[in-house]
Amino acid sequence: MPDDQQLTLERLNAAPAEQLRETLRACCASDAWVDQLLAHRPYADRAAALAGSDTAMGEIADADVDQALAGHPRIGDRAEGEGTDARWSREEQASVADAGDDVQQQLRDGNLSYERRFDRVFLIRAAGRSPQEMLTELTRRLDQDDETERAEVREQLRQITRLRLERALSPTE
């Protein structure tokens, strides 16, 4: 994130919405999430901003979740582009590159099965998870009904978005 785009609590609370959209879309590609997060300003502190992110995620429609999913590559695929969101995605999924060929192939096959089953990309918070853990979750989630899986996708998106917002608000980022 360029220095002039550094997200501080003060900037989140006071900057015009149009100046924040690109920065916030790196956290979540849903325009509705961005709108909801901005609508609840000002935030008393960093913890309140993170809680606001969770609230905003709960307020967006399924179509908005789908818009956010469009900003996420398949597990194991390298995010294209030079933007902050692509860089974060590559970092979050870095462990997959170190997985054995068998696990990588199972993830590719599982991604395709998931997409055929649910008609959307498989989303999981990759940060802090091993490739085997992601594969285990992918396999487990293939057996869920659509309503249960949609709720799980929303929860995974909430976690990813919160981690990214936390990172964006970090003074060291």
Overall radius of gyration: 16 Å
CATH homologous superfamily descriptor: Oxo-4-hydroxy-4-carboxy-5-ureidoimidazoline decarboxylase
Largest sheet composition? none
CATH A-level architecture: Orthogonal Bundle
Instruction: Please identify the top-level CATH class.
Output: Mainly Alpha
Query: What is the 3D form?
Result: globular
Q: Count every helix, treating DSSP H or I runs of 4 or more residues as helices.
A: 10
Q: Pick out the low-confidence regions.
A: none
Structural domain count: 1
Structural class: mainly alpha
DSSP strand count: 0
How far is the first residue's CA from the last residue's CA? Answer: 8 Å
Mean pLDDT across residues: 91
The fraction of residues assigned to DSSP E strands is under 5%
Sketch the topology as an H/E string, one letter per element.
HHHHHHHHHH
The CATH topology comes to UraD-like
Detailed description of the structure:
By secondary structure, the protein is mostly helical. The protein has a single domain, classed as UraD-like, CATH 1.10.3330.10. The chain contains ten helices and no strands. Helix 3 crosses helix 4, helix 5 crosses helix 10 and helix 8 packs parallel to helix 9. The longest helix has 23 residues.
Give the secondary structure arrangement, pairings included.
Elements lengths: L8 H6 L2 H9 L5 H9 L6 H14 L2 H8 L14 H9 L1 H4 L3 H18 L12 H11 L4 H23 L5
Helix pairs in contact: 2-3, 3-4, 4-10, 5-10, 8-9
Pfam families: OHCU_decarbox
Pathway: Purine metabolism; urate degradation; (S)-allantoin from urate: step 3/3
Protein name: 2-oxo-4-hydroxy-4-carboxy-5-ureidoimidazoline decarboxylase
